[in-house]
Amino acid sequence: MKDRLFEIGHDIKEKLWEISDFIYANPELGNEEFKAVEKLTAFLESHNFKIEREFLGIPTAFRATFESSKPGKTIGYLCEYDALPEIGHGCGHNMIGTMSAGAGVILSKVIEEVGGKIIIYGTPAEETNGAKVQMAEEGIFDELDAAMVLHPDAETSRSGTSIALYPLQFTYKGKTAHAASRPHEGINALNSVIQLFNGIDALRQHVTPDVRMHGIITKGGVAANIVPDEAVAQFYFRAAKKETVDELLVKVKRIAEGAAMMTGAELTMERYELPYDDLVTHEPLSEAFCENLRQLGITDIKEGICFGSSDIGNVSHITPTIHPMIGISSCPVRAHSIELADATVSELGHNRLVIGTLALAYTGYDVLMNKVDLSR
Which one of 288, 307, 318, 374 is most buried, by most CB atoms within 10 A? Predict the structure, then answer.
């Protein structure tokens, strides 16, 4: 059967190149990826996928479904297609969206024989406020038996890890006064923010080495002779595991409350962006994917890396998930660079796009045939 998948993949390879190259040439920032979405959904629709556009009310999200008439497992492929400011597709999302859509199309040609369902999700804005978080919070991925996404990189590597992240904003409200003649009548909100930073810096001695805490002051007053009545700080709190971040937030919130008590300011805390969970790679699914890469000629597969924070982590806490990397350059290139963007449309990039698409399709087939232990 995989020979048939291979033939199907090569039958559509020129279309896959065209889609990836088009998205590369038309980079769009997160939640503005209208051209990419139209290109991908038109391709899927032409292969009889049922398309739900503006999925969950997100203008550039979609869900595409292909269901056989037989019972079976449900495979999810995740498309990303947002670009970076000035750099364009320096994270290779033009390839990511194309490989996921292509894998779904290839697998759809044989699914009637084996049973099951394929769902392809268009997940915008991975670089900023990733749509996968909202989808996860609304229970969308509960319908899956496995989820996959493949990322271009300098080298090929197994699915690794990502860091959990929680964004928290602290707003302190005080009272203005003349800073020279009547300072005693004011409540200095900026002093609370300063004490917040001092308290968090002191906390660094008592956290595990994987913890990262970094923030900025976004509002600190309007003039030096006015006691600031409002001050705002925004922080990212990160750690290797979501549970560590949850424990960290309890301590941080106590520090923030103490900073308010020290000055008499009022405090509000709110999540100002979407939080990302850590990626938990499903190892049997990862090994199945790596074995399929080997069958397709890629044998130099590095150990999994930690690639920062991503909304794919939220998916992995719901269903077995992998996020491997496929090398697209014969020389070192950096993520988030023009060089990596250009590598996606090189001859090697085109070659790896086809191999990556086939490896995703092969792995989906293995899941449908119950050849992968998906227990958690």
Answer: 288
